[in-house]
């Protein structure tokens, strides 16, 4: 800003076997849209940082997150439509009362109506980020699969003083034994949010 134009050549070499991707957070429209989608999906249930499944270069967000975003958009549109209908009905009743009073007649007796709110046409799928991670890990989330998986196993709890390396040990154990890593903070917050 406020300086002469400077040009430079940047050479990037990829020694890895997988492709790499460059993007600018300020100018990438896809990134900005995905950030908005993730903020809606995560809401206040998660900390500022949370786990997401990795994706290929140029890939999109997990389908669970995208489906939840579309469902939430449709649900908000339905709620806005119902609110507009209710407000229009209230305005019509108020106008009819005002017109009757202006003509010197008694205000018409309106029946007390109960607002009709049809069941939402859209079904939200639950916590999309948790579902995406479970899908990535190969965990079947259907109720039949949950019942089938109710088996006994070993639970390892790693605890200790702050900054003692508990997370690193837990991650190493999970990697070695191909186990699932659970943070007690995330589990408690999710349990509170779901009940």
TrEMBL record:
A GO biological-process term: axonemal central apparatus assembly
GO cellular component, one term: axoneme
Pfam family, one: Hydin_ADK
Residue intervals of the Hydin adenylate kinase-like domain: 156-194
Stored InterPro entries: Hydin-like (IPR033305), Hydin_ADK (IPR033768), P-loop_NTPase (IPR027417)
Domain of life of the native organism: Eukaryota
Name under which the protein is recorded: HYDIN protein
Native source species: Notiomystis cincta
Encoding gene (name): Hydin_1
């Amino acid at each position: 800003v406020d300086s002469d134009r400077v040009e430079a050549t940047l050479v990037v070499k990829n020694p890895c076997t997988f492709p790499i991707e460059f993007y600018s957070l300020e100018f990438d429209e896809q990134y900005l849209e995905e950030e908005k989608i993730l903020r809606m999906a995560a809401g206040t249930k998660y900390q500022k940082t949370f786990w997401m499944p990795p994706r290929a270069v140029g890939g999109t967000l997990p389908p669970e997150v995208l489906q939840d975003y579309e469902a939430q958009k449709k649900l908000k549109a339905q709620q806005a439509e119902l609110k507009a209908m209710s407000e229009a009905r209230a305005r019509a009743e108020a106008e009819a009362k005002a017109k009757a009073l202006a003509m010197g007649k008694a205000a018409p007796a309106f029946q007390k109506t109960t607002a009709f709110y049809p069941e939402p046409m859209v079904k939200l799928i639950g916590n999309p980020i948790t579902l995406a991670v479970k899908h990535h890990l190969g965990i079947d989330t259907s109720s039949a699969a949950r019942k089938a998986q109710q088996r006994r196993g070993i639970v390892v709890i790693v605890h200790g003083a702050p900054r003692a390396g508990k997370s690193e040990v837990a991650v190493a154990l999970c990697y070695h034994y191909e186990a699932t890593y659970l943070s007690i903070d995330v589990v408690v917050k999710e349990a509170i949010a779901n009940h």
